[in-house]
Amino acid sequence: MALSLEVFLLAIAFDLLFGEPPAKIHPVVWIGRLITFLHKHTQPTRSQGLLLAILVIFATMFLGSFSVWIANYIPLLGTLVAAYFLKSTFSVKCLLQTASDIGKMIDKDLSSAKAMLPALVGRETKDLTKEQASSAVIESLSENYVDTIISPIFYFLLFEPFGLGLQASLGFKAISTMDSMLGYKKKGLKEIGFAPAKMDDLANFVPARLSIFFIALAQPSRAKAAFSGAFRYHKATPSPNSGWPMSACAGSMGVRLEKPGFYVLMAGERQPRTSDIPHAVRLIRLASALTLGIAILLLL
C-alpha cells in the first residue's frame, strides 16, 4: 500500500503541475486511435460492438501493465511510469481550467465561447444564449467531475488491494473513451455503440451517486439543498448517472440548469449567470480536493 500511495501522489503531482501530456504521448489519445482503427474494421452490430469494447479494454490494461513491468527493470522508473499512466485516467487541472476559460470568454465574446464549448459539452452550441451557455458549462463541469475524477480514482482504490488498481483505472478510461466516441445515441452508432454506452452507464453508476456527498460537503451551508436537488431531479436527464452530480451542483448553487429540449433541473431557481461559473469551478475544485484527500487517507 505504501507503493500505491507513492504512485497516487505522483499521479496527482503530474496532473496539478503539468496538466495533460502532449497528444503524441497521451495514453488516452492512443486509446482513441485504437478505437478508430477497430471501428473501421468492425461491422455495425451489437455483437461486434461488444467485441470491440472487450478488445479495447484489455489492450489498454495490457499496455499499462506491460509498460510498468518493463520499466521496473530500472530503479524508480516503474513507479514513475505507473504514476504517468494513472494520471492519464483522471484530469483535475484541465477540467477546471477549461470550464474557467470558457466562462470568461462567454462574457467577452459569446461567439468565441460557443466555438470553445465543444471541448466541454456535447450539445449544439450555435443558438445558445449567455444563460444557456453558462448552464452548459456548469452542467458539463459537474458531470465530468464524475467521469474524469471520481470514477477512475474509485476503481483504483477498489482494485488496488488486489494489485490491479492501475489496470482498473485504465479499463474504466477505455470504457469512458469508447462511450464518448461511439455512444449509441449518436447518429450511425446505435448498434456498435450500444455495448460501450451500457458499460459506461454501469461503470459510473456508483461513482455518480457518491459524487453528491462530495458536492454537498464542498459547500456545507448548502448541503441540504444539494441533496434535495439530487434526489428530486436525478431522473430528469436521459442518462441514469449524469443527473446526480448536475442536480446536486444546481441545488448547491441555487440555480436552474437546462439543456433546451431535453431537461430542466431545479426549475424554480433563477437562470445561471456567467458570474456563477467561477462559483461552480470553486465548488468542483473543493469536491475534487475532498475526493483526492479521502483517497489518500484510504491508501495510508
Notable traits:
single chain; 300 residues; mainly alpha; two-stranded antiparallel sheet; 13 helices
Structural class: mainly alpha
Radius of gyration: 19 Å
Stretches where pLDDT is under 50 for at least 5 consecutive residues are none
The description of the largest β-sheet is: 2 strands, antiparallel
Beta content comes to under 5%
Overall body shape = globular
**Number of contiguous helices:** 13
Helix content: 55-70%
Euclidean distance between termini CA atoms? 7 Å
Give, in order, the helices and strands. Answer: HHHHHHHHHHHHEEH
- Largest sheet strand order: 1-2
- Mean pLDDT metric: 95
Number of discrete domains: 1
- DSSP, total strands: 2
Folded structure, characterized:
The chain is mainly α and 300 residues long. It has one domain (2-299). The chain is 70% helix and 2% strand. The chain contains 13 helices and two strands. The chain has helices spanning 2-18, 27-40, 46-71, 77-87, 93-108, 110-116, 130-159, 165-182, 194-203, 205-218, 223-233, 243-253, 276-299; strands at residues 257-259, 263-265. A two-stranded antiparallel ribbon has the order 1-2. A hairpin with a 3-residue loop joins β1 and β2 (263-265). α2 crosses α8 and α7 runs parallel beside α13. The chain is globular. It starts with a helix and ends with a helix.
